[in-house]
Amino acid sequence: xxxxxxxxxxxxxxxxxxxxxxxxxxxxxxxxxxxxxxxxxxxxxxxxxxxxxxxxxxxxxxxxxxxx
Length: 68
Description:
Elements: H1 4-8, E1 17-18, E2 25-26, E3 31-36, E4 39-42, E5 45-48, E6 53-58, H2 59-66
Antiparallel strand pairs: 1-2, 3-6, 4-5
Pfam family, one: DUF2180
Protein name: DUF2180 family protein
């Protein structure tokens, strides 16, 4: 699989993963790793993990998520 964003730029670059937001395949240059909160239920109450899980997103999706 090849990076969608690189293909739009006329380059042929191998992808490394899938954006968890839009589902397109992306390379390391167009990938952004963010953290996301993980919750699980213990008993009847949800508990947040003290550690964030990794989440891979592409540059356009990351920009859209952080736009004010």
